Amino acid sequence: MAGSMLRFSLLLAAAFAGRATALWPWPQYIQTSELRYTIFPHSFQFQYHLSSAAQVGCSVLDEAFQRYRDLLFGSVALRFSHPIEKRHTSEKNSLMVLVVTPGCDQFPSLGSVENYTLTINDEQCLLLSETVWGALRGLETFSQLIWRSPEGTFYVNKTDIEDFPRFPHRGLLLDTSRHYLPLASILDTLDVMAYNKFNVFHWHLVDDSSFPYESFTFPDLTKKGSYNPATHIYTAQDVKEVIEYARLRGIRVLAEFDTPGHTLSWGPGVPGLLTPCYSGSHPSGTFGPVNPILNNTYEFMSTFFLEISTVFPDFYLHLGGDEVDFTCWKSNPDIQAFMKKKGFGDDFKKLESFYIQTLLDTVSAYGKGYVVWQEVFDNQVKVRPDTIIQVWREEIPVKYVKEMALVTRAGFRALLSAPWYLNHITYGPDWKEIYLVEPLAFEGSPEQKALVIGGEACMWGEYVDSTNLVPRLWPRAGAVAERLWSNKMVSNLDFAFKRLSHFRCELLRRGVQAQPLSVGYCDMEFEQT
Amino acid sequence: MEQRGLGMLRLPGLLAALGMLVGQAALGMQRERTTPLSYWRDLNLWPLPLSVKTTPRLLYLSPGNFFFGHSPTSKAGPSCEVLQEAFRRYYDYIFGFYKWPLGSDKVPSAMELQKLEVSVIMNPQCDSFPNITSDESYNLLVKGPVATLTANRVWGVLRGLETFSQLIYQDSYGTFIANESNIVDSPRFPHRGILIDTSRHFLPVKTILKTLDAMAFNKFNVLHWHIVDDQSFPYQSTTFPELSNKGSYSLSHVYTPNDVRTVIEYAQLRGIRVLPEFDSPGHTASWGKGQKDVLTPCYHAREPSGTFGPINPILNSTYSFLSQLFKEISAVFPDEFIHLGGDEVNFDCWESNLAVQHFMRNKGFGKKIEKLESFYMQRVLDMISAMNKRSIVWQEVYDDEVKLTQGTVVQIWKMGNLRMKLSKVTAAGFPVIISAPWYLDVINYGEDWKQYYSVEPLRFAGTREQKQLVIGGEACLWGEYVDATNLTPRLWPRASAVGERLWSHQEVTDLEDAYRRLTRHRCRMVKRGIAAQPLFTGYCDHEGRI
């Protein structure tokens, strides 16, 4: 199917470099013409088709209609009376939305179908989708099709679009531990994610630096582990709000609680949880990773992850497992004794495996699936076959391309992040490099390639907080979004530059502080408040 | 302490002597920390003053019972607008962004700080624009119940008010506190600038004003406004309105005369000079759209190719146009200096042009195209002199052996052979501004502020007189990848590192202490509404929202 559409897609890319083709990410199949229809903001409506499975009262779409009305016409006063032009163009006064499968109250999942078709011609103006999630994607595309003449008239061109994502997992990671991100920053990010058709918010909630997640089972974690327990925390209400805000935009929230490393901030709230490091024969007063030899540790984890499994509705949890520093474990005599008893020898990877296996079993028992960082695979921890491995290391132990081959050859599903660490900045148009990454460019069978479920753009927080998050993220993350959504063949940099520049101006118009790609201007510049 | 500059800068001894007297009188009884660069560990001053003496004695301030006032002996009074405006600003910076605690005003009056009394010793210059010789030194004596801020001119008062505001903090009960202290301060270099580029991307006036606010927080005193370039000509000229009508990105991407006035006045109130740059003969593509024949037509195979190069240096019409334009500019911008650019002239187009070739032959320039550049620059430099203004040029103008009049300032921007270049230019007797190590538009992952901070501007071979010719430096934020969306976090606090290097004593170089102070200074900027980005992992009590 994709093959025949592709020809059109590329042909059209060349033929219509005009405004009707300023879409981001580029759809799988599009045909558009110079024929245009006028849209009058005061009379235009989003409407449920009579035979749609979703009807008024469908929260996801009701709210989306409202959002896109505001995005499209928000600044145009509704009393704006338009002179009726000569009828050489006809008018469109509604977009009919037809959803085939009912379901407005569930959460999006890895298996959610996001396909949609948009048909705008003399007879109809129709958005057809299997699910509400597809309708959301189609509404975004529709909003990008509408343009305004210099005189202020809104138009949409005659267009046929048939669209679906290339990968089902298109994620963005935010790190709220190195720096706390105010709730509003997270919600704003979810909005822009939806504009880019991202569908997974990977929330790296806690880490060494701070523990802002307010646990109701272990309130001391936040009380003692956050930067400020009154202001720099996410309450249960905040978390609920993020999850619902994301759901309404067709975005999953993948919560990460990284262990056994990256856990310093857990220590103050849970005495005994972390490994005491030794200097010679005495405790040095510093602490290392989670202590893997105590029953208490596993009891704590079991209770804690029970809470997490309930709070976060997504089927998957991210359990971390990256960068475990063995020096502290090595220094501790109790751990040495445990290693001997278990017959691990000097292989601390076995201890790591021991910990992670126990943890994975716990989480499995709660009916959850899990994602882990690649070290868990590299260190040969025995994991369930349906585990998802996130590849993040660029060069070591092997090049990420090779790692993708290894992970999939072992039969695991893979997520790619290694080339998409957006916190790494350099001078110049680095979006191009980000854009040109081909996730499936590794040696492997078609079956292996099918195991790549997508990728994630990562914005780690060492140097990022709410002061610089937005311009650092957008439009650079947009390059990842298109790579994960659009056809593999959509990789022409000039074509991408034109559309992405246009899209970044559209983001400014929507109030997003997206930074420039190169010299130039937008009609509507960002205004300081 | 070093004083440097253009050979006419001398700290009036009066203030220095007075500072010593006041200091001794007030703190003589206290146990002092009096090494030349001592400072109390908890102080979060940025940039670090020349001398800070502080005691553990705490003074309490109540927002409802504190005010700024003029000393009866001050030469400035309530009619001095620049001070009245500053008093209001700093009251807000100190108290306005906090929640006022209740019932905190019951402190013993002996420990209360009720007033900062400002005294200007000489003609205050309330209505003047700051200039390169403006005296920014001040003495600040913080004691109860009345603290005093003494300066020769209003410019020193502005710097001292910033320092005073940085001394005040809130304890865990929310009470406003300052340590009793005595500060004597003056800048190391008189030219401490930030370059913004409004041609590659237009910057709304609001963004420029925000930048001026942040500059004042960091004691910068020059806004180098690279206002036009190849990409666009947003400066609205009254003499040649077509320049921006045709050369700006759009008619809303322009600076009207009123906008320019707004920027200049806003800067003046903060003791900041506005240095306009109209870069020529290169970097002028946008000029050609609104001014016929001003650019050189490039040739391809003895035919005009339809493209244009630098300004056409062989036409009389060029010089009469420039003379009118610069006449306007010299009237619009009050600063003594105009930046004439002169960098990166692409010679290919000139060399291709038949008329230019002919002109070169006539003038006897031979094949040496730099001579044509010289010819052009000299005429423009003379023009500026005739308008009683002084010129600043990029280093190429010196490198290409243009004959420069005494006092022309050379701005060094190339990293290659930086130290040797500094030696040479100063040996030739020209004042210099250093920017080469401070191109902040070039970004890297990690803590690059340390690299800016560790630059020592005077580390080059030269006599004392040569070093005196280094009048300062500029942090440059070129606009290829910068506009209003990312300017502030990209500039701050990275430019703060440059700010301290140019203000504080040469020996203030400890990175750990700088990190500690700068982290807090960045949170202070965030609290004051500047979206300054983090230096590293951590947090501010009040996180920023863009």
From TrEMBL, chain A:
SUPFAM superfamilies for the chain: (Trans)glycosidases (SSF51445), beta-N-acetylhexosaminidase-like domain (SSF55545)
Positions of the Glycoside hydrolase family 20 catalytic domain: 167-487
Protein's name according to its UniProt entry: Beta-hexosaminidase
Taxonomic path: Eukaryota, Metazoa, Chordata, Craniata, Vertebrata
Function: Hydrolyzes the non-reducing end N-acetyl-D-hexosamine and/or sulfated N-acetyl-D-hexosamine of glycoconjugates, such as the oligosaccharide moieties from proteins and neutral glycolipids, or from certain mucopolysaccharides. The isozyme S is as active as the isozyme A on the anionic bis-sulfated glycans, the chondroitin-6-sulfate trisaccharide (C6S-3), and the dermatan sulfate pentasaccharide, and the sulfated glycosphingolipid SM2. The isozyme B does not hydrolyze each of these substrates, however hydrolyzes efficiently neutral oligosaccharide.
Pfam family, one: Glyco_hydro_20
InterPro entries for this protein: Beta_hexosaminidase_sua/sub, GH, Glyco_hydro_20_cat, Hex-like_dom2, HEX_eukaryotic_N
Residues spanning the signal sequence: 1-22
Cellular localisation: Lysosome
Main location: other
Start and end residues of each Beta-hexosaminidase eukaryotic type N-terminal domain: 23-145
Swiss-Prot/TrEMBL keywords: Disulfide bond, Glycoprotein, Glycosidase, Hydrolase, Lipid metabolism, Lysosome, Signal, Zymogen
Record bears the keyword Membrane: no
Keyword Signal: yes
EC number: 3.2.1.52
Species annotation: Rangifer tarandus platyrhynchus
TrEMBL record, chain B:
Signal peptide: 1-25
Top-rank lineage group of the source organism: Eukaryota
Enzyme Commission designation: 3.2.1.52
Segments crossing the lipid bilayer: none
Catalytic reaction list: Hydrolysis of terminal non-reducing N-acetyl-D-hexosamine residues in N-acetyl-beta-D-hexosaminides; N-acetyl-beta-D-6-sulfogalactosaminyl-(1->4)-alpha-L-iduronyl-(1->3)-N-acetyl-D-6-sulfogalactosamine + H2O = alpha-L-iduronyl-(1->3)-N-acetyl-D-6-sulfogalactosamine + N-acetyl-D-6-sulfogalactosamine; beta-D-GalNAc-(1->4)-alpha-L-IdoA-(1->3)-beta-D-GalNAc-4-sulfate-(1->4)-alpha-L-IdoA-(1->3)-D-GalNAc-4-sulfate + H2O = alpha-L-IdoA-(1->3)-beta-D-GalNAc-4-sulfate-(1->4)-alpha-L-IdoA-(1->3)-D-GalNAc-4-sulfate + N-acetyl-D-galactosamine; a ganglioside GM2 + H2O = a ganglioside GM3 + N-acetyl-beta-D-galactosamine
Assembly mode: There are 3 forms of beta-hexosaminidase: hexosaminidase A is a heterodimer composed of one subunit alpha and one subunit beta (chain A and B); hexosaminidase B is a homodimer of two beta subunits (two chains A and B); hexosaminidase S is a homodimer of two alpha subunits. The composition of the dimer (isozyme A versus isozyme S) has a significant effect on the substrate specificity of the alpha subunit active site.
Protein family membership: Belongs to the glycosyl hydrolase 20 family.
Name under which the protein is recorded: Beta-hexosaminidase
Origin species: Rangifer tarandus platyrhynchus
